[in-house]
């Protein structure tokens, strides 16, 4: 059985990879990292990160679900929820 913290770690790592790729700079991502404030991600960059993550995890992230996402942990949880429903 796969532990949930392992899945979350994978999601957080992939969020960091996507953010680094989109932003063109190294990004350290923690569950508590606020996407806008701590990671300095604007709305356009966020959409590009979301597209990278959709490709990585082969999921579609509904825009209405993003409204409640503030931290990398929130985004990781959303990704994991969508992956388990796929």
Mean pLDDT reading: 90
Query: How many distinct beta strands?
Result: 0
What characteristic shape results from the CA principal axes? globular
Low-confidence parts lasting 5 or more residues at pLDDT below 50? Answer: none
Per DSSP, what share of the residues sits in E-state strands of 2 or more residues? under 5%
Supply the CATH architecture: Orthogonal Bundle
**Largest sheet features:** none
Helix content: 55-70%
N to C succession of SSEs:
HHHH
Tally of contiguous helical segments: 4
Report the CATH superfamily.
ACP-like
Tally of discrete structural domains: 1
CATH topology: Non-ribosomal Peptide Synthetase Peptidyl Carrier Protein, Chain A
Supply Rg: 12 Å
CA(first)-CA(last) distance: 18 Å
CATH class: Mainly Alpha
Q: Give the helix/strand class.
A: mainly alpha
What does this structure look like?
This protein has one domain (4-79): Orthogonal Bundle (Non-ribosomal Peptide Synthetase Peptidyl Carrier Protein, Chain A), CATH 1.10.1200.10. The chain is built from 4 helices and no strands. It has helices at residues 4-23, 43-57, 63-66, 72-85. Helix 1 (4-23) crosses helix 2 (43-57) and helix 1 (4-23) crosses helix 4 (72-85). The radius of gyration is 12 Å and the shape is globular. One of its GO terms (cellular component) is membrane. Pfam families: PP-binding.
Summarize it.
With 86 residues, this protein is mostly helical. Helices cover 62% and strands 0% of the residues. The chain is built from four helices and no strands.
């Amino acid at each position: 059985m796969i532990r949930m913290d392992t899945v979350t770690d994978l999601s957080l790592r992939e969020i960091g990879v996507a953010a680094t790729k989109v932003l063109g700079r190294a990004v350290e991502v923690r569950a508590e990292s606020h996407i806008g404030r701590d990671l300095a991600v604007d709305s356009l960059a966020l959409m590009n990160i979301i597209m990278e993550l959709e490709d990585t995890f082969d999921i579609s992230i509904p825009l209405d679900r993003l409204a409640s996402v503030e931290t990398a942990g929130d985004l990781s949880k959303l990704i994991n929820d969508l992956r388990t429903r796929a």
